[in-house]
Amino acid sequence: MIILSPKYKEFLQVKCKREFLEGTTAAGKTTIGIFKFMCLVADSDKKFHVIAGDDVGTTEKNVINSENGLLEQFEGIAEYYPKGKDKTRLPHIVYETNKGEKIIYVCGYGDQKRWKKVLGGQVGCVYLDEVNLANMEFMREITHRCKYMITTSNPDDPNLDIYKEFINKSRPLKKHEKDYPLELLKELKEPHVKGWVHWYFTFNDNPSLTKEDIQEKIDATPVGTKMYKNKILGLRGKATGLCFDLQPKNIITVGQAKKMKFQIFSVGCDTSYSKESHDKVTLEGIGITIDGKCVLLKEKTFNNKDRTIPFAPSDVVQWIVEFMEEFKNEWGFARTCFIDNADQGTIMEVRKAKRQNKLIYNFENAWKKTKIITRVQLQESWLGTGDFLVVETCKDYIDECNKYSFDENNQPEDGNDHSINGGQYAWLPYKKKIGNWELIKKIIKDESEEQHE
Predict the structure, then answer these.
(1) Which of the residues 71, 86, 125, 218 has the least number of beta carbons within 10 Å of its own beta carbon?
(2) 89: left (phi over 0), alpha (psi -120 to 50) or beta
(3) Domain spans of the chain?
(4) How many Cα atoms sit within 13 Å of 196 on the Cβ side?
(5) In 271-387, beta strands by DSSP E
(6) DSSP 8-class letter at 24
(7) Taking residues 55-65, what's their average pLDDT?
(8) 10 Å Cβ neighbour count for 304?
(9) CATH architecture assigned to 6-238
(10) Cα separation of 262 and 259, whole Å?
(11) Contact predicate 238/159, CB 8 Å
């Protein structure tokens, strides 16, 4: 028997075309999702419907035969035939309803030959388990062949196409936005499709779980791993572990930053002109206080991916100068902008602008002799000691810190790092003025003795 929380009850009453259920593990997404799916199948005028997952075996385990799964919830009126029955040779469920017999096909995303047979015609309702694993050709095909679709997923790599093409086009009900992590709300940024609703469920929405049950699941998952972020925090992220442990203590308000006394201001710029990726041009302005705290004060980011007319280095030059003027007026004078030295085209353009316009700013190559892993070590140490702070308005930077991870080879990934890189370019020349340098230099062998005075 399903115990219904207030949010479960509301979910069952909402009528829409597409529903995307996302959140922590053990939030009851599958249990309540399959119940609503079966109710809508019973009410549908269509005879044929679909349940799909990573493969048929996994779908049987997660959805059909699980505790509180489909067969347990609808015992006596739903029968599963894994090898087909009579003229229907595909795995399917026969479901007896007041509107007659319904056929629910069961298939896996990876078995293209089988799911193409299933999708030979129009269907009524579709239930997709672990949709983050779905074959995109399957998704694009089935979305045009059904009237209603419900999907479940634990959060995954935010760069997956499933998010951009489907999940991120949905929106939560206004009353539930307050329950969402800011990072996840920000991900739902594609143009909204009317009738597409996003639901975020956590442990606390599942009334069948005790406090002891929840704590046991938390204790069993190592902090800092991808699994912990996805399944326990209910946040999207990839790779095997976060590089930075960004805590609430590291995020401050503009008002708090305004009270600090700064000795140095600096700007860093990382660049990317690609239309094929989510890589960005990032401008990051930092200040270093007289007591050695590095504070990220201001940022701006630009992306070429979705622009009809892509920007070029000449555009970026204007943005750099505008950013430094704004930074000077809001925080203080940063004389130098350190630009990714892999982008000599932008550096040449901005130096030409300096000569032509007699700009007071300097534009230098980023100081990159310090290896990336060493930069990560330094910054993680400063986060731990409270010597690295981020103003809460720098949302892209915070977002990257909550995604930037070690890859399977235990190296910082090449991605989710453009704002982070821009920030590093700003503080690298002044690293010896930050935090516990005298202590940490005994632990970390720095490859660079560069010091900018």
Answers:
(1) 86
(2) alpha
(3) 6-238, 248-440
(4) 16
(5) 280-289, 294-303, 336-339, 362-365
(6) S
(7) 95
(8) 19
(9) 3-Layer(aba) Sandwich (3.40)
(10) 10
(11) yes
H-type alpha helices, 91-147: 112-118, 136-142
Mean of pLDDT values over 212-225: 83
The pLDDT assigned to 242 comes to: 80
Mean local confidence (pLDDT), 391-401: 91
Q: 328, 303, 299: which is closest to 422 by C-alpha?
A: 299
CATH number, domain 248-440: 3.30.420.280
Give all strands (DSSP E) within 309-383, no chain letters. 336-339, 362-365
- Tokens 């002799």, residue located: 369
Classify each residue of 267-290 as buried b or exposed e, where b means 16 or more C-beta atoms within 10 Å of its C-beta.
bbbbbbbeeeebbbbbbbbbbbbe
Can you give the length of the chain in residues? 453
Query: Taking Cα atoms as reference points, which of 177, 146, 200 lies closest to residue 27?
Result: 200
User: Residue 452: pLDDT band by 50, 70, 90 thresholds?
Assistant: very low
Q: How confident is the prediction for the chain on average, in pLDDT?
A: 89
pTM above 0.70, yes or no: no
